[in-house]
Amino acid sequence: xxxxxxxxxxxxxxxxxxxxxxxxxxxxxxxxxxxxxxxxxxxxxxxxxxxxxxxxxxxxxxxxxxxxxxxxxxxxxxxxxxxxxxxxxxxxxxxxxxxxxxxxxxxxxxxxxxxxxxxxxxxxxxxxxxxxxxxxxxxxxxxxxxxxxxxxxxxxxxxxxxxxxxxxxxxxxxxxxxxxxxxxxxxxxxxxxxxxxxxxxxxxxxxxxxxxxxxxxxxxxxxxxxxxxxxxxxxxxx
Length: 238
Known about the structure:
Blueprint: H1 2-13, H2 16-33, H3 41-73, H4 75-79, H5 86-114, H6 122-135, H7 137-149, H8 152-169, H9 181-187, H10 191-203, H11 210-234
């Protein structure tokens, strides 16, 4: 399975679509948003975390697109004749998604420190990257569920809709304070807002709250169940 993870990781990192959409785009958006008008250091830090979370969600969902492409080309059928059991194939693909999320996070954090002058303690940089990395797992499972359940073109459209919708509702692009009251209430239950709170809490010097962990764990269970059910539904046709 380690060889499979290494193979899929290299395939992903060599994909121009991943480099542009998963790494370059979040960096460009972050630098653009934080250099329009007058922005203080606290906003640049919060925007850095939010855009790193946005890049991570996009990269995690991209795993589902790769699964849909593998189904279309027959690669998953070929894997079924290898010694790897199906659970290792699914686990390997999920771990690949987790690994490939990290470059997106690091790219935005590097832009924050090198371009916008964001200053954090060394432990805060490390903890922010680590928590965002670990917190991206639910979105990888959502992408896998879409990839196993939908066709290739449909997976791309649905993943894009999920990414944009969750980013806006979760306040990854704009401050939650700009939302009307009802939307702020709804946002509190989205996985993306709680995901970003993992990083913003550390950047503010304290541990993530219990609410963020509980809500994100609930979404982890929901998206994980969705991925398993989607795989079982398609198992006989791959």
